[in-house]
Amino acid sequence: MPTVDTPLLHNSDEEQERALNIVEGFGSESKRLWKIAGPAILTCLCQYTLGALSQTFVGQIGELELAAFSVENSVIAGLAFGVMLGMGSALETLCGQAYGAGQIRMLGVYMQRSWVILFVTALILVPIYVWSPPILKLCGQTTEISDAAGKFARWMLPQLFAYTFNFPIQKFLQAQRKVNVMLWISLAALVFHAVFSWLLILKLGWGLTGAAITLNISWWLVVIAQLLYIYITKSDGAWSGFTWLAFVDLYGFVKLSLASAIMLCLEFWYLMVLVVITGRLKNPLIPVDALSICMNINGWDAMIAIGFNAAISVRVSNELGAGNFRAAKLAVMVVSITSVCIGVIAMIVVLATRDYFPYVFTTSLAVVKETTKLATLLGVTVVLNSLQPVLSGVAVGAGWQSLVAYINIGCYYVFGLPAGILLGFTFNFGVEGIWSGMIGGIALQTIILIAITSLTNWRKEAEQAASRVRKWGGSIASDE
Fold it and tell me: Which residues cross the membrane (predicted)?
């Protein structure tokens, strides 16, 4: 005869089984995520280190050289990087969903379309490099910093055209989960860059000229090596040679590329604007140098988040393309928890080493002291930026670029930027006030993206992904 406790025992067993399934699902998804995120993070770190390493060597020369490199890298190259990466990020949605749906040949055509669009975009950006000194002066930089940074910017034009090919290639390979190839190529380029940066910048005393030469060559080595891999292996059928289909449906492709570019540029430019506004303070050389060091550290941490951004974009787009909406939802939960934990650890490291890490970048005691004061704000930014790029990756994987662009405008430029200017100049908190206000914008945007992601109907997103693959694959299928 059953006892009254039997139903409770059954319920307890069911709850334990459900909890076990959740743990197993989390672990399984975490393994899939890290297979992509691990190499992607290391690739991002290697490529980011190209510029960071050059900045470190340049910082040993003098304060003006460090400020010139930092302003060019943060403002001119930062603007171009954001535009080119954003335009290329349309491939994360299209290639990822096409790969998930089994439409492999479409990936090569998409990549070529992106090359065409990014090459035209690079041509449009050339005048910004050429006339960067007056542009920087107009933004409030001193004549001394503007002229030095402008001269360096013109030397960096080859890097701009390396972006044209690199970003589409990366999205093409990421969609197929060929991230290990990208890692080994980037690692080899970094070793080359480290040796020749030391030789040209410090040993031979070429300064900013040496930094420009090594950076340009290193970026083009990455592009050429990746292209050779694709041409030789055919990328499992994703590459079938050059085709005139690269020039078909460009209007619709440009629209999605522009939406991606606007979304990402509003994020990249936000912290770039922080450097520009700081340049308008009285005696800006020390604050700009200190802020550039903090942005360098933040950039290292951001590479981890960007690696997760790439991984979750691939996971979400692949699963939605395949119609697996539950797997896409689980992937979002796993990557969010993982990235926040890493962000907290990074914040602890920043705060624990605040008195030491500035010496890696400069020998100026004034710059070291100012950098140490900014370390707390850097720690807060590191935590927020551990989750925010990941949620942006979810948006790219699902195709929400336009929605997130509007959110970024409101949070960053309607709320955060005015708050920073008010605190920095009206209330005289200087660079700390500017940065604090802008952190508020990042926090607001992150909260909104969390709410949107939590309320998303993932079944409906999978249906929309299937419709998108049919729409973009039509002209290609008809030509096969």
Answer: 75-94, 115-132, 181-201, 207-232, 253-277, 330-354, 374-396, 403-427, 433-458
